Amino acid sequence: MNDPEIPLPLTESAAETDAAPDSASTPIAEGEVTPIAEGEVTVEGNLPVSEPPAPPERLLPVLPLRNTVLFPGMFMPFAVGRPGSLAAVEVALSGEEKTLLLVAQHPGTAEDAITPEHLYTTATRGVIKRMNRTDEAMELIVQGIERVRISRIDQVEPYLRAAYEVVPLPTDTDTEVEALQRAIIEQANQAMQLVQPQMTVNAQQLLSNATEPIKLVYLLGSMMSLAVEKEQSLLEAASQKDALALLHSYLSHELQVLQLRQKIAAQAQSEMSREQRDYFLRQQLRAIQEELGEKTPEKAEVEALRQRLEEADLPDAVRKEATRDLNRLERLPAMAPDYQVTRTYLELVLELPWKKTTTDQLDLDHARKVLDDDHFGLGEIKERILEHLAVLKLNPHAKAPILCLVGPPGVGKTSLGQSIARALGRVFERMSLGGLHDESELRGHRRTYIGAMPGRIIQAVRRAGVRNPMLLLDELDKLGRDYRGDPAAALLEILDPAQNHTFRDNYLDQPFDLSQIFFIATANTLDTLPRPLLDRMEVLRLSGYSEDEKLQIANRYLLPRAKSETGLANAEIRVPESTLRAVIAGYTREAGCRQLERAMLRMMRKLALGVAKDDQPAATEVTPAMLTELLGPPMFVPDERPSTLPPGVSTGLAWTESGGDVLTIEATRLPGGRGLRITGQIGKVMRESVKAAQSYVWSHAESLGIPPERFRDSGLHVHVPAGAVPKDGPSAGVALVSALTSLYRNVPLRRDTAMTGEITLSGLVLPIGGVKEKVLAAKRLGLGRVILPKANEKDLRDVPEAVRESLEIILADHLRDVLTAAFPPQ
After folding, report:
1. What is residue 269's predicted lDDT score, i.e. its pLDDT?
2. Are 143 and 88 in contact (CB under 8 A)?
3. Do 466 and 451 fall into the same domain?
4. Angle between the 297-311 and 337-351 helix axes, to the nearest 10 degrees?
5. pLDDT per residue over 301-334, tens digit each?
6. Is 407 annotated as a binding residue?
7. Cα separation of 42 and 39, whole Å?
8. Does 217 count as an annotated binding residue?
9. Burial class (CB in 10 A: 0-12, 13-18, 19+), 573
10. Does the reported pTM lie above 0.70?
11. Which of 815, 657, 661, 801 minimizes the C-alpha distance to 733?
12. What positions does UniProt annotate as the active site of this protein (predicted)?
């Protein structure tokens, strides 16, 4: 007959042993004469009569089944994978009848090393109807033929083989059997209606075809998800009455479970609204637990918190407070407002690393290598960092340093903090303070407020998972303040090693030790920071990079990164030094390297487009002539000032948050005018410098060779170009004096000279800040001479040696020296 399609998924089982076809005795042909041996008994007719021979023993391979039983007359799919099972199936397939014994193994037995003690004795002889081989298993469809009893195990290795005897199916009938059969059919119909109402008609037709009671038992036993012991008891039943009685009890239990399930679903459904769909599953779980008499989710949650509290390594004071809150939580109803607040608080207490730390890797050679690999230059900064690491190595109990990296954007402040964390082996956490204007963001909110949460410091420690991470406070100078408090004032306690070992967050309300945290702050300027906050940090200044340093950074870091991000890492694209210098000079004018990195990315994206369209060969050398096509026209052109400056124009140097800059100062006389006009968005301090410069030149007119009537006959207008950019500070004093002296003497200044310095009315030149940035700005603009205050000579060591050697640096401590160097030789 045709094999039926079995829609059931293949369940893994195992099978063992060879199929030996049944043997039969050889009959004696009719009329055949057989000699009578001596001693044989004869009966009438002289026919020999002897003891009938014993029937030959039946042997078949055995396939052990896990978690299921095959009933006679039923089809079942299997997946066979164990070596002994595969060998048994192979033997069965080699026989003509393809039969084998399928016997269930006792629950809880090991998957391997099946012994006769692990198997039931009542089994089913089955025939393999379909077979499919895979890489590691064999998929079978087997039909049960008859019920058998294993009499003995004939063979164990390499597969199980057993002798068996057929156990006929029971055929007893009476009125009780008929009543049980009808009751079972009714129960099965009810169960089908509860599980899948749309399949009830098909199920009824299937049950009606099972006319014999024992076949009905086997059919429903196969359809129900029964335990192996229950299925085996159905197979072993000695009579139809016993089998029907067992099945009736099993069906009654299943029907009760299905009815309870429907009741639970109906109960949860009645309480659910359209806005409470997410609430449905929780209600269903609650109803199940109530029916089973189990604990509610709230009680289970409290017990889980209590277990975590017992296992947590907490300080004694914290454990005492947490235990008190947990006892209070246990008494609160789940819908109470304080329930979720207390539970969230306890979870925070249990998640904080009160005593967990990481071990610092205080290998100074490794730290230096990491810093050199990640950053080019910054020699003094790296030495200062290594000094701090050496102190931590010699004194493990020393307070962690609090560094403040100050410098223009793009010089690597944030990435330097990451490199320090990698060198130390500490967990790195970054916290941006830009725009923060609420003190509670750092200290946390009190738990009495709705939506209260811990401050950012405690949250960062919880994310890090250890109490000694490296915490980067980024953009410290961008802190704000308003009616909600001053965040900078909250940082006074956080960054003070003498106080932060008992830092109290408003939400946590428990002392937490912050003294082992390695704090690193970054800022572009220190002007907006309070002096008490600066007093708690050690300031490390990161100045801008020179052209040679930018060239090295572009070659080592920016260009490979741009190639990788644009998919050109494997392409043979060369960017020679001349091209990089052209990019640095024509498309960037900054202290850092951020604009340079963007230019590299734009250039690589253009090349990537050509390579993707097959318009550009993968092997390309980018020449300076190609930059206009790749990056557009240059944004900055070389200084095109005339060979001589007009009288009244001088070149000053200024410091900005983006690095140094060159400042042009213009002065002109107003014939017939009176007074002083100042334009160009000049601040109060710089206005005072203009007036001081005018007073000095006027008071020393005779020694400077200026006719005094020029001050009486005309007014004065001083203008600083780039009027949209605010300017302030005292360092433009010497440039203002030089511009006014040039104007009144009608003699131009040298065009290749820039100057900076504060002045006094007596002519002294006072020191200023930002020497390195200002000198680098003069170098970028192509100037050859720089006039600096004599007192700033010590700051020249921060200027790269190559820049110092390429510039003529004049040190002056009086305005006489400045004017002598600023004017062309007579």
Report:
1. 62
2. no
3. yes
4. 30
5. 888 888 888 888 888 888 899 889 888 888 887 7
6. yes
7. 9
8. no
9. buried
10. no
11. 815
12. 731, 774
Q: Collapsing DSSP states into helix, strand and coil, what is residue 104?
A: strand
Burial (0-12, 13-18, 19+ Cβ within 10 Å), 645: buried
Of 563, 727, 772, 774, which one is the catalytic site residue?
Answer: 774
Instruction: Using the predicted structure, report yes or no on whether residue 11 has a pLDDT greater than 50.
Output: no
Name the percent of the chain lying above pLDDT 90.
18
User: In this structure, are residues 441 and 491 in contact, taking their beta carbons and an 8 Å threshold?
Assistant: no
Shared-domain flag, residues 347 and 416: no
Could you tell me which of 487, 489, 504 has the C-alpha nearest to residue 441? 487
* Co-location of 380 and 253 in the same domain: no
Q: How confident is the model at residue 756, as a pLDDT?
A: 94
Is 46 contained in some domain?
Answer: no
If you average pLDDT over residues 36-53, what whole number do you get? 42
Residues 158 and 190 in one domain: no
Higher-scoring residue by pLDDT: 212, 817:
817
Strand-pair partners of 13: 80
CATH, residue 72? 2.30.130.40
Of 222, 650, 731, 742, catalytic: 731
508 is a domain residue:
yes
Same structural domain, 309 and 415? no
Would residue 121 count as lying in a domain?
Answer: yes
Active site residue 774: yes
Using the 3D structure, point to which of 284, 317, 351 is the last residue of a domain. Answer: 351
Cα 801 from Cα 455, distance rounded (Å): 46
Residues 6+ apart with CB under 8 A from 606: 629, 630, 631
Let me know whether 159 and 180 are in one domain.
no
| Rounded mean pLDDT, 13-27 | 35
Beta carbons of 224 and 254 less than 8 angstroms apart = yes
We report the CATH number of the domain holding residue 381 as: 3.40.50.300
Find, among 467, 463, 466, 399, the residue nearest to 430 by Cα: 463
Q: Among the residues of 405-518, which ranges form H helices?
A: 413-424, 440-443, 456-464, 487-494
Which of 605, 631, 657 lies at the terminal end of a domain, its last residue? 631
Is 129 annotated in a binding site? The answer is no
Residues 667 and 787 in one domain: yes
| Strands of 158-264, DSSP E | 161-166
Domain that holds residue 197: 175-266
Angle 451-457-461 from CA coordinates, rounded to 5° = 105
Q: What confidence tens digit (pLDDT) does each residue in 160-173 have? A: 899 999 989 888 88
With 70 as the cut, is the pLDDT of residue 248 above it?
yes
Pairing state between β 402-406 and 518-523: parallel
Residue 718 marked as a ligand binder: no
Sequence-ordered list of residues with C-beta below 8 angstroms from that of 756, at least 6 positions apart, any chain: 652, 653, 654, 731, 732, 734, 735, 768, 774, 786, 787, 788, 789
| 413 in a labelled binding site | yes
731 flagged as catalytic: yes
How many independent structural domains does the chain possess? 6
Give the Cα separation of 45 and 51 in Å (integer). 18
- Mean pLDDT is lowest, of 206-210, 396-400, 411-415, for 206-210
Same domain, 405 and 535: yes
